[in-house]
Amino acid sequence: LHEPKESELNSAINHCLGQAIKFYGPRSVLEQIPIHWQASENKQNLEQLDTEIKGEFTNAWLLPILRDFTYENGELALFVDHFLPLADEINRKSLSCTKTANKLRQRLNSSMETDDDSKDVLFNAHEAILVTSKELKRCVHSLWALLPSLCRSPIDVPKSFPKIAKKLGETLNE
Prior knowledge:
The protein is mostly helical and 174 residues long. It has seven helices and four strands, in the order ααββββααααα. Strand 2 (44-46) and strand 3 (49-51) form a beta hairpin.
């Protein structure tokens, strides 16, 4: 639905979806174009360092459109029920990446691997996992960036705010 590079088609899609968000609301658009983490079938296994981080953050291109075109009557419940659990899941994957990268770094520093090829493999895996961790953290920040737009004249504060109050406090203190 969205081209990988900037194009006139993307501008038209962005505008069309922006108008749909204004008219029908973000929930209706997300029902048609869901944003979620889709795990891949392939797991990377590096000498028993199993990382279950492979996957794809689908339709992430829709996040800035949602952020920019949700002006009023947002639903805090949408963030609480959909985006917050997704952010937590992706954050756990990021932390898993960081732990795995640290294990690889320890193995590299311990000099137990004497073979240069083995060291290269470990180094490349370490670097790839660090990049993945940073990408996942960026996804988490993108999801949290939706909260202000969903809080513009929200229609469900009394019902939904108690569900998110504690998590907001914890996140702000991190």
